[in-house]
Design brief:
Pfam families: Methyltransf_2. This is O-methyltransferase C-terminal domain-containing protein. One of its GO terms (biological process) is methylation. GO terms for molecular function: O-methyltransferase activity. Keywords: Methyltransferase, S-adenosyl-L-methionine, Transferase. The chain has 124 residues and is of the alpha/beta class. It folds into 2 domains: 69 residues; 48 residues, no CATH class. It is built from 5 helices and 5 strands; from the N terminus they run βαβαβαβαβα. Helix 2 links the parallel strand 2 and strand 3. The mean pLDDT is 70.
């Protein structure tokens, strides 16, 4: 199994330490990779996601093509809630989403339906 990771190295480290046969690539900005600690089975690669790697959709397509027939592709990301839900949890996620939007130009947050559409887009 291979993992392509960006940003949250702590999660990546936990997965690889629990499942030592997993090999992964931590792809992040060069200045982040420069200071990244080494972990067994993890290769750190510096680059810019939207210039040195194909467009987002083709990244998913290539991952999908590499997954064996009985394999899985798992994307771990936050899911935007239905904003008609008045709960405190929804308000906190909304605040977090606004913070990401303001600080991470170009970041895309998705609802559950958007993730489903993305996941099924490349099926034969």
């Amino acid at each position: 199994m291979n993992i392509l990771q960006n940003s949250n190295r702590a999660t990546f480290r936990m997965i690889v330490s629990k499942y030592p046969t997993i090999k992964g690539i931590n792809f992040d900005l060069p200045h982040v990779i420069e200071n990244a600690p080494t972990y067994p089975g993890v290769e750190h690669v510096g680059g810019y996601m939207f210039s040195s790697v194909p467009k987002r959709d083709s990244i998913f397509m290539k991952c999908y093509e590499d997954v064996p027939d009985n394999g899985k592709m798992i994307v771990a990301d936050s899911i935007l809630p239905d904003y008609t839900d008045p709960s405190l949890a929804t308000k906190v996620v909304g605040l977090f989403d606004c913070t990401l939007w303001a600080t991470n130009h170009g970041r895309k947050e998705r609802t559950e339906k958007e993730f489903e559409a993305l996941a099924t887009r490349f099926e034969p």
